[in-house]
Write a structure and sequence with these properties.
The protein is α/β, with parallel strands linked by helices and 414 residues long. It contains 19 helices and twelve strands. The protein has three domains: 216 residues, HUPs (Rossmann fold); 96 residues, Tyrosyl-Transfer RNA Synthetase (Orthogonal Bundle); 72 residues, Roll (Structural Genomics Hypothetical 15.5 Kd Protein In mrcA-pckA Intergenic Region, Chain A), CATH 3.10.290.
Length: 414
Amino acid sequence: MMKLSEELKKRGLLHNHTPNIEKALDEEKPTFYIGADPTADSLHLGNLLGYITARRLVDAGLKAILIVGGGTARIGDPKPDAERTLLEEEVLEKNTKAITKQVKKLLDSPDVSVVNNYEWLASFKLIEFLRDIGKNFTVNNLIKKDAIAERLKSDIGLSYTEFAYPLLQATDFLELYKRYNCKMQIGGSDQWGNIVAGIDLIRKKEGAEAHAFTFPLLVDKASNKKFGKSEGNAIWLDENKTSVYSFYQFLLNSSDEMVEELLFKLTLLPIEQIKEVIAKWQKEPHKRLAQKTLAFEVTKYVHGESKAQAAQTVSEILFGSTDTLNDLDKQSKQMLLQEAPSFSVVELPDEFTDALVYIKLASSKREAKEFIQNGAIKVWGQKVDFDFDLKNAEFKNGLLLVKRGKKNLVVLYK
């Protein structure tokens, strides 16, 4: 059986790390933590990398603590290019509840605890904090941290509020060490400076050794932008913000340059199985087996198997892989009507050409006639003539598919 450290390396998930991380992961198996600040009411696909990495560690026998940063979110991790907007208290409370619910779902295990760092950060008094925590940090080291260094070079400057953020994250690690014997932190590569601050604080205050590793952030190779809300390209894990179908489609449309990396990092499929999928995909790339596998597996992990199956079925219908609707379950039918242009058949004009204009498969009666004459209009994959009666056509599962060419499709329902 492959060691955990070896698997993480093969998946490209070990970036910066403390010495002897292999021994810690494979033999010591310490309790570890990962955190997210509730700066929004949902996690996004970029966040998912951390939680699915945490899931791998839990499956390997480690215990996890998930921090929802209700305290640190009130300050904000310094961004390299802008000051964070401080959120109102009621917004933070709402976001904290939503994120807590999400992380519990993502790591549904008795070996996982979820805590809110506001519990201890809110109890500190200023003088106490400066004496007990601040005394252990030098300004010289803090200004070397990437985000802080970038901001100090800019015209924006850096408020003391954000400058103090590494101290708060370090305090989290120290507090978890004392409360739960938590000896390891994991996070994205942009968090390495903050993580090291916690390791140093535990060493100075407790005389103990702590461990950590970071994983590379997911970066779109085409745009060179990371997957995240600050980049304006967030794919949310909350289906009310990004529908299950849109989530599935985003992954299905992964580029050939990205899909292999995403299969290794964002799915729980065994490495050997991923290699088999990639080998088949490389022989027949037009069948997009790698993208289909990625979309299904990640959607299943986030939203459940039945919704992943529904998204897969609807995608096959909308993109012409199948016209089969007889066995369409209620969930898939609802998703199809939500995602595809759809019209009630009772609304349609009686004349076929008028109906095509009404459902927007033609811009005029003249164009509708041309499409029919050229065989571009098909119902259930069959060409139809001018006398076709949509209202009395064969509906399957209460639905009728009308297509113009390969990409233009409308669903009619009774």
